[in-house]
């Protein structure tokens, strides 16, 4: 596509089509736009239902949903940061911290504060951790990797200090029903996972804030010069990630029925893996909430299927590792294909405007 | 030197290269003889860069014959092979590693060593020999390259290329970042190379340099070979004629209506590095050019108006109302729009769609409660791009799929979508081919006709003279004067823009550690 000619204006070919195609999600888009995880997911599910009798049973699917839900919420949190071309290594530790904060609030004052208070306080703590991350990244321009690595240590250490390394239990009955309960015959955890995915998805796709997140991830300087409040959006993305991580922590504590100081250890890597398998790019601006959910499901399915088939869990780790590499390689190859012809006037990428010719 | 008695150092016959559907080179012949300075002339997009890349093995030709010193070269010619064959390039963007020392840079890739351990003394001797050849005897080898003035860095780069026993040195726009005095010195250096029997392929937009130094010239146009003739057979006009292939009287839009009331008023603005405040007034419908040499501060001034960089003092008024230009966000809200010099680094969001790139600046306005309404966004984007002749496939295509000219139009559309009253353009036709250039000039004229105030920074004087009503000349971070574009000549502008006392200019000093790099060079 060159624009050498100055022929008559060739207005967009699709002028007469009024239902805007941004509103129609085509099948090709599902597969092309970074959702390579879906075929993998379908393939896995298909293979597992053939290979085992127990996979397609209600009990197993319910079990799977509960296992995956917490990863999925955490993946959504991680996605927000990854889209800004950042990374959040602290989400796993925030899971632990939030769980323990919630547990201690309800437990310590024996009979103590109501469950709601425990949950709210835990969410607040998570949001503050995210806020600090965001402020350091946005205003001091520190690399997200380092900032969140620091926060990862701080949050985990705080968790261990608060509990002296001991599990906090027992917790009130009401708290356990948060994760353990059901609604319309489906586990609360699954509903909450879907809710988080839908909310984050809408936030990213249908709000100005969400578009700003992608803009920053694509090119922060361009975004700034376009009038995007870059720092504000960065801070809010990290804060929201912290909040969602804390929510995952509360759900985990509720599911376990106690506040475990080591809970969430290593979850940040699972969350990043889920995002990447779901089509997110660590360079930012690529990835969707649905993709993160699919990625989490793929990871969960591998674990679940492995258990059902009696596969050595060590092998499962290898399988997940291979999958991450495959996902990144696929994205990279796709980039090579789509971006190569992209260079404007391919032959002359770096011709400057001519200097004064007199 | 008309006859080709000596064997050419490099020789091309019927060489072609395509990038997908785009034909970058077709049937190009070229002979560069030892001891000659061979100039390569052509507009942006004529295929000069591709030709250089073919010569250096950076890209491979699709067809045709390539000989080095008479020996045919296989198609998969690599840059390493080219270097070994004695073909060296001095790029416009210097390829030295700024954090390493002069000595390390010179010997990189061929460090004298014993069993992997660097032979310091050998390295020192080799580096000094190389510097000697470009007249930099005595330059401290441990100086970090990033601290050297541009002209010195350029010489170090040449020294390195020569150090690889280059038979052919290609200069790709070597003087872009140099002052006049420095450029003259470089040309002198090149004459010395010629005297040593080195072949030189010289590429520059500055015609006067070609006339000063060239023995022969090859003219390319739209990827094809137009002619190769002794330089003396051309004069300024006939060379342009050959490059352009047609008269370009209608490249710039015609006369415009008389300007309306004052739209943009800049009072006492002091961008960082400016010794004194600058005032600037632009009326509705007026196009004002900012001229100046590279590093004069013209881009900094433009960016300061928009609030892209911090400034020391000053106020900006749009339609008589004082606007907060502390941040680009505030400036954009106040009706200002900026197209930066480097649209990929600081303009486009390459991974996002064309639609999003156009809509981004005006999203809040068309999204009640911050909620995106896709239909409304689409209509808005359509209206903003109307009449800009942007050529693309789908709105959802990544903006990176567009050509340079269309990308630039996308950015214009972005500000049109915000209802901008003032448009600040920094090198709007950089890396844009001729056809799209004419389009962009028309767009600028149309926007002005629609009542916008437009400020254009450009290094290309014909463009400024053709496009603008007035030209404000910046010299060394000061306003040097103002000219009426209708009556001014390029010489008038250059006279105002050139540093006073020419050779005693601080930039011409090649002692290491003096002049800090100009902002533009850093980018």
Automatic annotation (TrEMBL), chain A:
Cleaved signal peptide residues: none
UniProt GO molecular function: transmembrane transporter activity
Transmembrane segments: 30-50, 70-103, 115-139, 145-162, 183-204, 235-257, 269-302, 314-330
The entry's keywords: Cell membrane, Membrane, Transmembrane, Transmembrane helix
Composition skew (Low complexity), residue ranges: 1-10
InterPro entries the record matches: ABC_transp_permease
Span list, region Disordered: 1-20, 338-358
Membrane topology, as annotated: Multi-pass membrane protein
PANTHER family in the cross-refs: ABC TRANSPORTER PERMEASE PROTEIN YPHD-RELATED-RELATED, RIBOSE IMPORT PERMEASE PROTEIN RBSC
Protein name: Monosaccharide ABC transporter membrane protein, CUT2 family (TC 3.A.1.2.-)
Protein species of origin: Goodfellowiella coeruleoviolacea
Lineage of source species: Bacteria, Bacillati, Actinomycetota, Actinomycetes, Pseudonocardiales
UniProtKB/TrEMBL annotation, chain B:
Keyword Transport: yes
Biased composition (Polar residues): 501-512
Keyword Cell membrane part of the UniProt annotation: yes
Family annotation (Gene3D superfamilies): P-loop containing nucleotide triphosphate hydrolases
Key words of the record: ATP-binding, Cell membrane, Membrane, Nucleotide-binding, Sugar transport, Translocase, Transport
Domain ABC transporter: 10-247, 246-501
Stretch list, region Disordered: 498-523
GO molecular function terms attached to this record: ATP binding; ATP hydrolysis activity
Coiled-coil positions: none
InterPro entries documented for this protein: AAA+_ATPase (IPR003593), ABC_carbohydrate_import_ATPase (IPR050107), ABC_transporter-like_ATP-bd (IPR003439), P-loop_NTPase (IPR027417)
Protein name: Rhamnose transport system ATP-binding protein
Organism whose genome encodes this protein: Goodfellowiella coeruleoviolacea
Taxon lineage: Bacteria, Bacillati, Actinomycetota, Actinomycetes, Pseudonocardiales
């Amino acid at each position: 596509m060159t624009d050498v000619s100055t022929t008559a204006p060739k207005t967009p070919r699709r002028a007469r089509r009024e239902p805007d195609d941004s509103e129609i999600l085509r099948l090709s888009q599902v597969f092309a736009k970074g959702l390579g995880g879906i075929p993998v997911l379908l393939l896995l599910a298909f293979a597992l239902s053939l290979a085992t009798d127990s996979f397609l049973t209600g009990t197993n699917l319910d079990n799977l949903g509960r296992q995956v839900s917490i990863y999925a919420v955490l993946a959504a949190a991680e996605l927000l940061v990854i889209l800004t071309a950042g990374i959040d290594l602290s989400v796993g530790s925030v899971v632990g911290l939030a769980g323990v904060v919630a547990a201690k609030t309800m437990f310590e004052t024996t009979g103590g504060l109501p469950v709601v208070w425990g949950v709210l306080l835990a969410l607040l703590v998570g949001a503050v951790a995210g806020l600090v991350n965001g402020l350091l990244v946005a205003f001091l321009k520190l690399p997200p990797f380092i900032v969140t690595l620091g926060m990862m240590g701080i949050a985990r250490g705080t968790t261990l200090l608060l509990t002296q390394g001991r599990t906090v239990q027992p917790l009130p009955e009401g708290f356990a029903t948060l994760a353990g309960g059901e609604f319309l015959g489906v586990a609360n955890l699954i509903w909450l996972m879907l809710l988080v995915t839908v909310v984050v998805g809408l936030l990213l796709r249908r709000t100005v804030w969400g578009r700003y997140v992608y803009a920053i991830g694509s090119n922060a300087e361009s975004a700034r010069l376009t009038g995007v409040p870059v720092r504000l959006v960065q801070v809010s993305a990290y804060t929201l990630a912290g909040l969602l991580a804390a929510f995952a922590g509360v759900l985990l504590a509720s599911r376990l029925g106690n506040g475990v100081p080591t809970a969430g250890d290593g979850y940040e890597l699972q969350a990043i893996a889920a995002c990447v398998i779901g089509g997110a790019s660590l360079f930012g601006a690529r990835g969707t909430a649905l993709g993160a959910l699919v990625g989490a499901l793929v990871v969960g399915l591998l674990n679940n299927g492995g258990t059902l088939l009696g596969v050595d869990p060590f092998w499962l780790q290898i399988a997940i590792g291979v999958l991450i590499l495959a996902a990144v390689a696929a994205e990279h190859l796709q980039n090579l294909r789509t971006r190569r012809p992209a260079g404007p006037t391919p032959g002359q990428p770096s011709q400057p405007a001519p200097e004064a010719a007199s | 030197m008309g006859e080709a008695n000596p064997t050419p150092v490099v020789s091309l016959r019927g060489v072609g290269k395509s990038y997908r559907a785009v034909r970058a080179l077709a049937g190009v012949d070229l002979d560069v003889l030892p001891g000659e300075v061979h100039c390569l002339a052509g507009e942006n997009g004529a295929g000069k860069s591709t030709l250089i890349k073919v010569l250096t093995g950076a890209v491979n030709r699709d067809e045709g014959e390539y000989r080095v010193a008479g020996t045919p070269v296989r198609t998969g010619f690599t840059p390493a092979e080219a270097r070994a064959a004695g073909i060296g390039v001095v790029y416009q963007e210097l390829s030295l590693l700024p954090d390493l020392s002069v000595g390390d840079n010179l010997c990189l890739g061929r460090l004298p060593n014993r069993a992997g351990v660097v032979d310091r003394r050998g390295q020192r001797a080799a580096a000094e020999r190389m510097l000697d050849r470009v007249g930099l005897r005595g330059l401290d080898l441990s100086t970090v390259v990033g601290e050297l003035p541009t002209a010195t860095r350029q010489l170090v780069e040449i020294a390195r290329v020569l150090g690889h026993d280059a038979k052919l040195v290609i200069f790709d726009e070597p003087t872009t970042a140099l002052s006049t005095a420095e450029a003259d010195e470089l040309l002198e250096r090149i004459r010395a190379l010629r005297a040593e029997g080195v072949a030189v392929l010289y590429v520059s937009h500055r015609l006067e340099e070609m006339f000063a130094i060239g023995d022969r010239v090859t003219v390319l146009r739209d990827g094809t070979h137009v002619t190769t003739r002794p330089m003396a057979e051309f004069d300024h006009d006939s060379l342009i004629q050959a490059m352009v292939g047609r008269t370009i009287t209608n490249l710039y839009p015609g006369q415009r209506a008389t300007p309306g009331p004052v739209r943009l008023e800049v009072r006492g603005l002091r961008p960082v590095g400016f010794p004194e405040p600058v005032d600037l007034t632009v009326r509705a419908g007026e196009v004002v050019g900012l001229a100046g040499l590279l590093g004069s501060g013209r881009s900094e001034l433009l960016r300061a108006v928009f609030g892209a960089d911090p400034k020391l003092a000053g106020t900006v008024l749009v339609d008589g109302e004082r606007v907060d230009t502390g941040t680009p966000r505030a400036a954009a809200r106040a009706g200002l729009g900026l197209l930066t010099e480097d649209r990929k680094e600081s303009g486009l969001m390459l991974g996002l769609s064309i639609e999003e790139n156009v809509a981004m600046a005006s999203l809040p306005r068309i999204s009640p409660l911050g909620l995106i309404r896709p239909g409304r966004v689409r209509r808005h984007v359509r209206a903003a791009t109307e009449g800009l002749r942007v050529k693309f496939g789908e709105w959802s295509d990544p903006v990176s799929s567009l050509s340079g000219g269309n990308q630039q139009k996308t950015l214009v559309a972005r500000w049109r979508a915000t209802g901008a009253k003032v448009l600040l353009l920094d090198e709007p036709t950089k890396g844009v081919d001729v056809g799209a250039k004419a389009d962009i000039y028309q767009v600028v004229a149309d926007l002005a006709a629609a009542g916008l105030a437009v400020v254009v920074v450009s290094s290309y004087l014909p463009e400024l003279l053709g496009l603008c009503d007035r030209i404000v000349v910046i010299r060394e971070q000061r306003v040097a004067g103002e000219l009426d574009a209708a009556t001014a000549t390029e010489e008038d502008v250059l006279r105002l823009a050139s540093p006073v006392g020419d050779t005693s200019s601080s930039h011409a000093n090649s002692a290491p550690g003096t002049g800090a790099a100009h902002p533009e060079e850093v980018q």
